[in-house]
Amino acid sequence: MAKHFQGKEILADELFQTIDPFAKPYLKDLKRWSFTNELWLTYERSKLIKKELRRRIPKLSIIDSGLLMSWVYSYGHSVSGSMTEDEWELYQKLYDSLSVTILKCVSVVMLDYPIETWIARMKKRGRASELKYYTPEYLRQIQRGLEALKHKLWRHSVPVTIITEKDCPDFEANEKDCEFLIQKVTEALGEGK
Question: Which domain holds residue 53?
């Protein structure tokens, strides 16, 4: 996407693998560290986006696993019990205050694929951390979080374009599927009308 649209790719998920000071304690004790870890990641991901918005360069930024996914991961922690109700309530208030201006400036493209496809793609990528920690149970929590996020975005009038596996089975290996995905993103950006 970044190459096609001549945009900047921001891999916000790399924060967890690189500079997150809470990553190791979090992986050892989710109940103790999920709230702190997700707050840190949310804050850092919001800084990345705000930095891009301040540049005011008419250049598209493609963000993978950014601020929206922080909400999804935290939702999963609230559902699984590794974040208390009070922590989840506070997290939502802080998240909303960090994201209120950002959500007015984004187009969201959501890939809605079954968990079996996620697992197959993780195996293909071969990232050790995904293979170790992304269990089917954890992926179901993420899927529930994505569904809840979709409704949250709709309530806030944030446009969401949903791409399903039926519409676009394999955009990595199939050129026709890739073209379909590019067309949908173009439409989401308001450039294809």
Answer: 1-105
